[in-house]
Amino acid sequence: MQSNAHKEPQVIIVGAGFGGLEAAKKLACEDVRLTIIDRTNYHLFQPLLYQVATAALSPADIAGPVRAILSKCKNVEVVLAEVESVDVAARKVRTKDQVFDYDYLILATGARHSYFGHDEWERLAPGLKSLEDAVELRRRILLAFEYAEKIEDAAARKAAMTFVVIGGGPTGVEMAGAIAEISRYTLAKNFRHIDPSQARVILIEGGPCLLAAYPPDLSESARKQLVELGVEVRTNARATNITEEGVQVDGEFIPCRVKIWAAGNLASFVGKTLSVPVDRVGRVIVNEDLTIPEHPEVQVIGDLANFSHQTGAPLPGVSPVAMQEGRHAARNVLRMIRREKPKPFRYFDKGSMATIGRNKAVADLKFFHLSGLTAWLTWLFVHIIFLVGFRNRLLVLLQWAWAYLSFDKGARLITRNFQAEQRPPA
């Protein structure tokens, strides 16, 4: 006799980011068989990646094991694998060594950085999408000061202490501010032959202003706060070439050791395997209810989805959008199981914020705008609340409190043996 468990619909969620995890929480302990497939075993709080990259936090502070988060519900299975393709006709998800059948599928595979046809730049100017990216950037930033400390050539020392951030969105603004802050305060008295406070941080933005999605007053406030920290802000400027030695910005070549890419995104390749229309950056063009054409059992959310039904333009690739879409997709799955029609998705925009440094931030809360200390405190509160797990919230709060009082950032670890390399990495 067949058990009832085998009659329960099989739901697969691909990706355990903000959208995927919210969908999983809604479906956990429901009358379904739920499988979460992700290429990592943890949920990552991406908005704080830049703090790992600049040694304010350790990787474990902003990540939590997916199995532990969903361990209370016995209907949940977690699979560590990278999805290679989806066969919507056969209702199969394929990884390198397994094939999974599904009744309902939620795709939340996210996005990576886009180098606009210059993929060779990725090695020279890493982006910031994963823990590996953050640890690598931390290594490069700290190594730059170590390299400058032991060389005598003035030009090489200046280049080592020059940091170029390409892209003036939230990630670029936060990275530029954090590097300026760590060099001027945290590292200022740690070296004997160099003065880290003299480090040069350059933020390059191709458009006319920083934080283009923000109101003009907050964009200008962010620029002023960065300048106060010593960041050189260049708008209407484009990086036309990146080499080991530096960055070509329009007609000027800037010698620099560390280059950071924050200028564009490219949706996961998985979307292209669905055989449905995608936009120029690979996002799946979804229906009003987040489903794909001809296949209501498949929903696409987060950075992988182009949802343009509400404003006429795709919703931004930010965590609140993904979280709301994830919860909605899960509710739609339950509706379809009950033989009900899935409901259209509507995004409720609560605002956006970006931090620049100590007591420096901007916040667009729709009905009013904040900048400086009040925006920074608001940013702190929101990010503590949305961190996964009490342990992470407590640890991050304590570390932020200590860093605020002492200007010290305790995660200044260079974790790869650079001595085996022919030269210190760029």
Commentary on this structure:
This protein has 426 residues and is of the alpha/beta class. It folds into two domains: 4-113 and 265-337, FAD/NAD(P)-binding domain (3-Layer(bba) Sandwich); 116-263, 3-Layer(bba) Sandwich (FAD/NAD(P)-binding domain), CATH 3.50.50.100. It has ten helices and 25 strands. The chain has helices at residues 18-27, 49-53, 66-69, 131-150, 154-160, 170-186, 216-228, 319-337, 373-386, 390-406; strands at residues 10-14, 33-38, 42-44, 63-65, 76-80, 83-87, 92-95, 99-101, 104-107, 111-113, 162-166, 200-204, 232-234, 239-242, 246-249, 252-255, 258-261, 265-267, 284-285, 291-292, 295-300, 305-306, 352-357, 360-364, 369-371. The strands form eight sheets. Strands 5-2-1-9-21-20 form a six-stranded mixed sheet, covered by helices on one side. Strands 13-12-11-17 form a four-stranded parallel sheet. Helix 6 links the parallel strand 11 (162-166) and strand 12. Helix 1 (18-27) packs parallel to helix 8 and helix 4 (131-150) runs antiparallel to helix 5 (154-160). The model is unreliable at 1-5 and 417-426 (pLDDT under 50).
